[in-house]
Every structure is written in structure tokens, then in C-alpha cells.
Design brief:
14 helices; single chain; flat; mainly alpha; 345 residues
Amino acid sequence: MASLSPFVKHALYKALYYVLTWFVAVSFAWFIPRLLPYNAVEITVASMERSLTAGGSMISPQEYKEMVSYLEGLFGANEPLWLQYVNFWKNLFHGNLGPSIAFFPATVNQVIARSLPYDLILIIPSTVVAWVIGNIIGAQVGYRKTGTLTDRASMVAFVALNNIPFFVLGLILIMVFAVELHWVPATGYTYSAIPRLSWTYIKIFLKHWIMPFLSVTLVSLGGWVLGMRQLIINEKNSDYMNYGEALGLRGSILARYAMKNAFLPQITGLALSLSTVVGGSYVLEFIFGYPGMGYIMGVAATENDYLTVAGVFVVIATVVLLANYIVDILYSVLDPRVRAAEVGA
């Protein structure tokens, strides 16, 4: 270790830290649902029994026990807890997240592969659009004279926008555009709408996509505007800006310097925001019936499907921690004081 460069030591230290964090987080996600006082397999069998008896069929106690035994074997729930834990890690390192109870016979891998694209196509564009527009507006507002009536009024609007929950704005959009104007459907997108490159499918998808997109974009916009405005104000009051003004530099040149320095924290914020893409938004997706990761997480939780919940959490934890690791490394490259503080270099 002594011969390694400070940067490599810092990168290894951070990698070890995040790997341990990931291991603990995934282990908790696996253990906690199994400590709850219910048997997910028996709940699933009871649900199947209700469906069969509703159709006039009857299940004997022996058949019921055989179904429970079969599903416990299928889901690995008939093994000791420690062996289930060991098998979970073995399968995880082979990329196998196991079967899904709520979406049976689909596997957790298939459920995630089916839902993840919907979050990517929703959260990435909405986050990037909100980031670009929010930073432009925030820079303009921050560089202007603050404390005016226009500045205060705009701040009230952006603070309100930043603090309104996604689902509240979503319900308002549903009331306006779906209930009153009938421009778009409130909910109703299902997996039966098989993705294909046709105008018919694209129009159906866009009708169900536009309101979740607006909800995420508008709420995120307020935060980016407020953040960029404050960063620009801090830059305006810094010594180099005062020195530039004393030298008689034009306002446009000073504004360019201020924006360059203010953008670094905003880029970090964008990277962290994008890392949460895979998690989707449970409440928002449930309101709009949008079939992303948040939606399947909610369905899995209500159906006591701890296998799918754990699988989705593994994906979310992996992406979020990986993004944090990349940001930490970038920060250590841009600011050597960061790695010096942690590895003593």
C-alpha cells in the first residue's frame, strides 16, 4: 500500500467502503421481510384457493398442503434460514434474483427487465430537462438584483413548486387534463400494450407518459432554480468577483465565471439524481398506473412478495452506491484536499 499513489489509495478505500455498505444494505433487505409474522407462500396459496373456489372448484386440505409444500420448495422457503441466505448470495453472484411470487411464473429478473425501461424513459428526460431549465432560470434570477418584488414573487413560486409532493401535483394534473379537458387518460397503461415501433403504440405510450413526466419535471425544477440562485449569489459576493468588478470587467464576463464555478455542485446533484432513476417513484407510478420499478415494488410489497422486493432493492442499492462512488472519485480528482483528508496524502 505504501507504494500506491494517493489517488489509487483513495479509490481503493472508497471502493471497500461502498462494497461493505452494499453488503450490509442488501443483507438487511433480505432479512427484514423474513422477520415479519406472515408466510408469503401461504398467503399466495390462499389467494389461489380463493380464485379457484370463486370459479366453483374445491380444494381439499390435502391438496392445499401439497400446494403450499410445492410453492415453498419452488421459492426455497422450505430450507433453513441460513441456507436460504447462502443460496441467495450464490444466485446473486450468478445474476439470478430468483422467482417472483406476485408476478409468478415470471422471475424477478424478468420483472425488473420489463419495468426498468419505463423508469429510464421517464426519469432521465424529466431530470435532465428540469436540470437544464432550472439552472438557466436560477442563474438569471441569482445574477439579477435580489430582494426586488419580482425576485421575491418568483422565489415564492419556486419554493412552493419545490415543496409540493409529486403525487399532489399528479392529482392536480389528472383533475385538469384527464377529468376536465379529457386530453389524456388518467391511468390505464398495462403490460398488455406490448412495446413496438409503430405510431399507434407511440401515441398510446405518450398519452400515459406525459403527465408523470410533467409531475417530475415541474417539482424538480423548483429545487434546481433555488440551488443555482443561491450558488450564484455566493459567487457574486466572493473576492474574485469584487476584484473583477474593480478592474472594470464586463458583467457578461463576470457572469460566465460565476456560472462556471456554480455548476460543479449542480453537476454532482445531477449525477446523484440520475442514480435514483432505477428506483422510480412508487406513489407517482401508482397514481398514474405507470408500470415502472416503483409500481412493481408497490405491488410486490402489498402481495407480500419479499423475493421481488429484495431483488428490486438490490438493483437500486447497486446503482445508487455505484453513482456515489463515481462522484466521490470525481471529487477527489477535482479537489485533492478531499483525498488528502481521507488517506492522509
